[in-house]
Write a structure and sequence with these properties.
alpha+beta; four-stranded antiparallel β-sheet; four-stranded mixed β-sheet; single chain; 31% helix
Length: 378
């Protein structure tokens, strides 16, 4: 599946192209005989930094936009640009296309330094926050509120503007020293699974980052083995026969540990289910709203805001509309939570049932499509 990551910058700069600028599309981009991985180095600097690095290697200044092909590593392995590591697992993502650009030569005075070329602005799409201005002079003056006509009641307060509830999980978050490599593979699969799996994976990661869960390890690794010793056992007694994962909740007062069967799992689906079952045994309160997974996002960015795209062709419009649908998919995770748990906070508003939440998500989708039509035309 291909998902275009769209940036969040002013609409006016979206269609502007510097005079004399040169652009070239690489589809798909290749590096040292492999598809280009979405991360510049293994597990970090994903999305825009990796796309910019590729363009610099080709003699360009930066990437104007890129698209991502997900889950291609097993069929077509990807390679990181800086450390040259190859990812050949089913969860590995690579760039589907990168458009590179460089500015044309501009005559400059011998005594006047060249002015730096500004990057294009970011497209503001509903449900995503825009980057703050880079200087106070760029901040538009706020007009005074209009005076209320005498005798009229003030209008009721509107819902707060949509804001992401939290940053998405990124590959760097999953590649944590407290998570065994097989556990990392399982979390990557769960983060891309059905809504229930995404919820469990997000809560597992939240618990590990918060220290409420000590980590996910194979049964014979040091952390669970030492915990077993505290209980007067050895690691071979941690897992009952026929069980692939347990949560070690004893002794009381220490964060639990998830211990999984050692080795490479022969059945990945069963392994993932065993991990979820072990997580549920831990009894750790879940953290809502769930954080989505964006393989291209830099930590701290909202979902799908790590690239740039211009709308000057029917194909660009199709990609932007695909981004709107991609955003809806992540928003609907919150609605699944509302339906299962009775309430969820989504973009600053509290929803108590699935239908109410889904209606708001549809409104956000419609608004997003209207913005695309505004910039791209009908």
């Amino acid at each position: 599946m291909r998902i275009v990551q769209v940036g969040t910058v002013a609409l006016g700069g979206l269609l502007a192209v510097a005079a004399g600028a040169e652009e070239k599309m690489f589809e798909p981009p290749m590096h040292a005989g492999h598809r280009v991985d979405i991360c510049r180095v293994w597990g970090s600097e994903c999305g825009q930094p990796a796309a910019d690095e590729f363009c610099r290697l080709q003699g360009f200044e930066r990437a104007d936009f890129f698209s991502i092909d997900q889950d291609i590593g097993a069929a077509t392995p990807t390679r990181t640009l800086v450390d040259g590591k190859v990812c050949d697992q089913g969860f590995c993502d690579g760039f589907g296309a990168i458009s590179c650009t460089r500015s044309g030569a501009v005559p400059q005075s011998s005594t006047t330094p060249a002015a730096p070329q500004p990057r294009p602005g970011r497209l503001k799409l509903p449900g995503l926050s825009s980057s703050p201005p880079t200087s106070p002079q760029q901040q538009p003056a706020q007009p005074p509120p209009p005076a209320e006509p005498p005798g009229e009641e003030p209008p009721p307060p509107s819902l707060p503007p949509p804001q992401p509830a939290g940053p998405p999980w990124t590959p760097k978050d999953v590649k944590d020293s407290r998570i065994d490599v097989q556990g990392q593979y399982a979390l990557f699969r769960l983060l891309k699974g059905d809504p229930a799996q995404r919820i469990d994976a997000s809560n597992i990661l939240s618990a590990i980052k918060a220290g409420a869960l000590k980590g996910i390890y194979q049964e014979d690794q040091q952390v669970p083995a030492m915990r077993a010793t505290e209980l007067g056992q050895w690691w071979g007694q941690i897992l009952p026969k026929g069980v692939d994962g347990v949560c070690m909740t004893e002794p009381a007062g220490k964060p639990p540990i998830i211990a999984m069967r050692r080795g490479t799992p022969p059945d990945k689906t069963a392994y993932d289910a065993a991990l979820v079952t072990a997580w549920q045994q831990c009894g750790i309160a879940p953290i809502w709203p769930v954080r989505p997974y964006d393989p291209s996002a830099t930590p701290g960015d909202p979902p799908g805001t790590s690239g740039l795209i211009k709308c000057n062709s029917p194909e660009d419009k199709i990609r932007l509309l695909a981004h709107c649908e991609h955003t809806k998919k992540y928003n609907m995770i919150g609605c699944d939570i509302a339906g299962e748990h009775g309430s969820v906070e989504l973009y600053g508003a509290l929803f108590t049932d699935y239908e109410e939440c889904a209606e708001r998500v549809d409104l956000i989708l419609d608004s997003c499509k209207e913005e695309v039509t505004k910039i791209c035309g009908k």
